[in-house]
Amino acid sequence: MTVLVKRTRAIIVQCDAFLIVAIFGAVVALEILMLGGGFIVGNQAIVPMTMLVEKWTSPAPARPHRAAPAVVAAKQENPNFVPTIEFAPIPPLFSSPNEFHPTSTPDIYADLIRETASKNMLPVSLVQAMVRVESDFNPHELSNKGARGLMQVIPATGRRFGVPNPEHLFYPAPNLEAGTAYMAWLLDRYHGDLDLALAAYNAGEAAVDKYRGIPPYRETQNYVKRVRAVLRDLSSRV
Question: Catalytic residue among 31, 115, 134, 177, which?
Answer without folding.
Answer: 134
